[in-house]
């Protein structure tokens, strides 16, 4: 695997490595409405130390084949609006897609655009066999993103995740490279 984190370009976005100077912005965005509530692993509060640790870990996580984590930036202004990642399994040649976008930038198609780009990178550059993802059943926005990028609904795990004192149902999605249709 390449040592350097990639830069991925879409019509409106640049997915690129987060920089140390973005830690405060990352912390502010990750503490925004519904971020921690709708994700399995993002802590709340999301401290400045957490942001620094996350940013610092990304190059080694990619070099070691563990994950690819990039900031989602608006192409015109370079504004950081979220984070997208693929947790990688070399043994299974698979990636698990995760993402979040700041509240003030939701419902504008940015998440779908970013997710399609990183999935394409996973299939073409990382030679993944499968990309999958999951979301809480109550998070219909995330489910729509997965469907828009071509991930197929694979099932519902009832009560599979304990979050904020409640057992949550998880919706499972996935796609094999052989079934993937690249955007034209």
Describe this structure in words.
It is globular and about 40 Å long. 28% of the residues lie in helices and 34% in strands. Strands 1-2-3-4-5-6-8-7 form an 8-stranded mixed β-sheet, with helices on both faces. The protein has a domain at 8-129: Gcn5-related N-acetyltransferase (GNAT) (Aminopeptidase, 3-Layer(aba) Sandwich). The relative contact order is 0.15. It contains 5 helices and 8 strands, in the order ββαααβββαβαββ. The protein has 184 residues and is of the alpha+beta class. The longest helix has 16 residues, at 48-63. It comes from Pseudomonas spelaei.
Q: What's the arrangement of strands in the largest beta sheet?
A: 1-2-3-4-5-6-8-7
Radius of gyration: 16 Å
CATH class categorisation of the domain at 8-129: Alpha Beta
> Given the C-alpha coordinates, what overall shape results?
globular
Features:
globular, 8 strands, alpha+beta, acyltransferase, N-acetyltransferase, 184 residues, Aminopeptidase, GNAT family N-acetyltransferase, single chain, acyltransferase activity, transferring groups other than amino-acyl groups, eight-stranded mixed β-sheet
What's the helix and strand layout?
Blueprint: E1 8-9, E2 13-16, H1 23-30, H2 35-38, H3 48-63, E3 67-74, E4 80-89, E5 94-101, H4 110-124, E6 130-136, H5 140-148, E7 152-163, E8 166-176
Parallel strand pairs: 5-6
Antiparallel strand pairs: 1-2, 2-3, 3-4, 4-5, 6-8, 7-8
Compact summary:
This protein has helices at residues 23-30, 35-38, 48-63, 110-124, 140-148, and strands at residues 8-9, 13-16, 67-74, 80-89, 94-101, 130-136, 152-163, 166-176.
